Amino acid sequence: MAEASGFAKPTILVVEDEAPLLTLLRYNLEKQGFRVEEAADGQEALLRVSERTPDLILLDWMLPTLSGIEVCRQIRRKPATRELPIIMVTARSEDQDAVRALDTGADDYIAKPFAMDALLARIRALLRRSGAAPARGRLNWQDIVMDQDAHRVTRGGRSLHLGPTEYRLLEFFLQHPGRVFSREQLLDGVWGRDIHVEPRTVDVHIRRLRKAVNGDGEIDVIRTVRSAGYALDVEG
């Protein structure tokens, strides 16, 4: 993107007409190292994009003057912005609306209310794919090291092979070591509130994570707390 060469920080254009949500998004995005630009309606969003292409757009579905769907459609028609990452943000949660947003050209779709951690994870995933992700460093706990920029994990120097969901699950645990999370909290933090999956899905991915992280003779670092949930911790 043109913006990436002009600024060290990736730029996110937030297109949102609800002032409180706009303020919340700006605070959290800037806290994570992003540069934020704003547009309050569809026409302003197109103008902003034409003046200076951002690295990613958070695009509200329901906007004054021009809907988010139409904004997305017009952005995709232009060769210069055809590959611009777009996440559609909306109060609509029906499956057919998600399909429509993706068919129009959005790269991802998240419904209000959403967990900020889930939105940030999606933003980073899209920016990694487009080559505009900010440097994030490493997460360490015990002998586990997660290189977030290289998307690699090791334990005691041994490379761990994790699926996408197991990676996000371990990343979430590494950000909160020792803290116990219920299945519902893990669903919100890792999958996002708008994604409808059964709590038992957490158990499946915990088993996969355990299998990948715990080698022969190694201590199990995923602690099960009866009637409470799971934690990145060791017994005793």
Our count of domains comes out at 2
Strand content: 15-25%
Fraction of residues in helix? 40-55%
CATH fold call of the largest domain: Rossmann fold
Q: Give the total of beta strands.
A: 11
Q: What is the CA-atom radius of gyration, in angstroms?
A: 19 Å
Distance between the termini: 50 Å
Look at the helices and sheets and give the structural class: alpha/beta
Q: What is the top-level CATH class of the largest domain?
A: Alpha Beta
CATH homologous group name of the largest domain: Response regulator
Mean pLDDT: 85
The CATH architecture of the largest domain can be named as 3-Layer(aba) Sandwich
Q: What topology, given as strand order, has the largest sheet?
A: 2-1-3-4-5
Largest sheet: 5 strands, parallel
Oligomer: single chain
List SSEs in N-to-C order: HEHEHEHEHEHEEEEHHHEE
What is the general shape? elongated
SS element count, helices: 9
**Spans with pLDDT under 50 lasting ≥5 residues?**
1-7
